[in-house]
Model the fold of this input.
Amino acid sequence: MSRAFEDLIAEAGSVSVDGWDFSWLDGRATEQRPSWGYQRAMGAKMAGARAALDIQTGGGEVLAGASHLAPLTVATEAWPQNVVKATRLLDPRGVAVVADEDKPPLPFAADAFDLVVSRHPVVTWWEEIARVLQPGGTYFSQQVGPASVFELVEWFLGPQPPDVRGGRDPGKARARAQAAGLEVTGLRPETLRAEFFDIGAVVYFLRKVIWMVPDFSVERYAGRLRALHDRIEADGPFVAHSARFLIEARKP
Done:
C-alpha cells in the first residue's frame, strides 16, 4: 500500500540533512552516476600530489572515501554543521578542515597546493584557485551542469529564463578558467537519469540541495507537493535529468 501524503511529508521534514550523504534516499530515489567515477579518479590524483586542497567538502564523505590522500591534505567548508561532521570524519585520516565562507580570498598563501579538487562547488572562484595552485598544479572538479534536475525545479518555480537554464554551461566554465590563467586539459559533460519514487524523497532532496528551489518549504509549496504526490501515485516515479561535467585545468 502507498503511504499517506502527510506521513511522507512529516518523515522527510524531520530527518537531518547535514552532510553530503544521500543514503536516506536508498530505495526512494535513484540517480545515474557519471561514467568517470569522480571519487576513484580524485583518489588517483591524490596519490601523486604532495599538498592538496578540497574546496567545499560538505560533510567530508567524498574525500574520506578516497583511496589515497596527499601527505598534506586540507579541506574547506562553510556550513557550520558540515564543518563539525567533516572534522569528525576526516581527522582520522589526518585532514585538517578549515571553516571558510566560500568567498574570496581562500585562507591560504599563493602557490600552496599542487592539487585542488572540488565536487559540486556552488561557485567556482577561478582566480583564487589559480592563485593557490603551484605552477604546474592541477584543478580537478566534478560540477553540476546546466538545467540540472530542472524538471523538478520548474515543477515548483515554473519555466526558468535562458540565462538561468544555461548558468552552469561547461563552455562558460572553460572560458572562466582560461580567463584566470589556467589551461583546461579536460572537459567531459554527461546527462544522467534521476527518479523520485515518493514525495518524501522530493522533500528531502530539496531540503538538502537548497539552491534548487531557494525558497523551498513544505508550507510554501504544499499545493505543488500534493499535486506531485498524486502524479507519482498515478503514473509512477517522477523522472528528471541531472547534468554533470568533469573539468581538469592546469596552472602553467
Observations:
- The longest strand covers residues 183-196.
